[in-house]
Design brief:
single chain, mainly alpha, 11 helices, 79% helix, binds protoporphyrin IX containing FE
């Protein structure tokens, strides 16, 4: 398969995988399968997928380093935008179906309930990342500034996990799993750990190929985020 065909196949697979929860949720909504509390089901599903895809976005760089599979970088933007989409629907569900678009109530909720405060701050962090996700924005900002801005994604990851930890009342297991994954992803960005990941797979026999793949397939200006 040519490199371009492999990129296309990977993008298509990622798009289908990230869009599948939306299709499942829509099908359940149309078929009356959202359970006794449909608003709660939509809020929970979209919140979870928003967080999962945010963590998947953050996993791209360490996985690329660990596996040497440079193609992964080509789906990072798509994963990030799907995460933003689910979080957007999550917030819209809360604002429209839960809060009845009552702005006063929403502002009071953001101020008074810490997990909503953190959720809102996280959503706000994701906005500039989505807006500057285009190739044009990378060019306009310059690679260095773009990369610095997009490190906000790590803070958003922390925000998403803290939001989840804060809102659960009893069963902490699931948010704790996200916390462990996030801690691993943050640790992978420590320079010593990051270069150890690179050394782990950099056997002399594979090096020439990896160099070529990096030169041809890495997204422009976005390496290292
Ligand atoms: C203004 C922004 C946000 C608001 C108002 C909001 C609101 C909510 C509400 C009301 C719940 C359900 C709480 C409950 O059942 O007691 C929830 C759950 C959740 N939210 Fe958010 N959220 C926001 C942003 C975010 C963001 C940015 C993320 C992820 C990056 C996120 C991830 C989650 C997760 C993972 C859950 C738990 C789902 C579950 O229980 O299975 N939320 N959120």
């Amino acid at each position: 398969m040519s490199p371009a065909a492999r990129v296309r196949a990977l993008k298509l697979t990622t798009f289908a995988a990230a869009g599948a929860p939306l299709v499942a949720l829509t099908a359940a909504a149309l078929g009356g399968g959202l359970g006794a509390n449909p608003v709660e089901t939509i809020t929970h599903e979209t919140g979870e997928w928003g967080l999962r895809l945010l963590l998947a976005t953050l996993a791209v760089t360490p996985l690329r380093r660990l596996t040497g599979w440079q193609l992964l970088g080509r789906v990072r933007r798509m994963l990030g935008l799907w995460s933003f989409f689910y979080v957007g629907v999550h917030f819209a569900t809360y604002a429209v179906l839960d809060a009845g678009l009552d702005l006063g109530f929403i502002v009071e909720d953001i101020v008074k309930r810490p997990y909503i405060t953190v959720g809102f701050a996280t959503l706000v962090m994701l906005v500039p990342l989505a807006v500057t996700s285009t190739d044009g924005a990378v060019r306009r900002l310059g690679g260095r500034r773009w990369r610095a801005l997009h490190r906000l994604a790590y803070l958003a990851g922390v925000g998403g996990v803290v939001h989840f930890l804060w809102l659960v009342k009893a069963d902490l297991l699931e948010p704790l799993v996200y916390l462990v994954v996030l801690t691993g992803l943050l640790a992978a960005r420590i320079p010593a750990v990051s270069s150890a990941l690179g050394r782990w797979r950099a056997t002399p026999a594979r090096r020439p190929d990896q160099g070529r793949a990096r030169a041809t397939l890495a997204p422009r200006g976005s390496e290292g985020v």
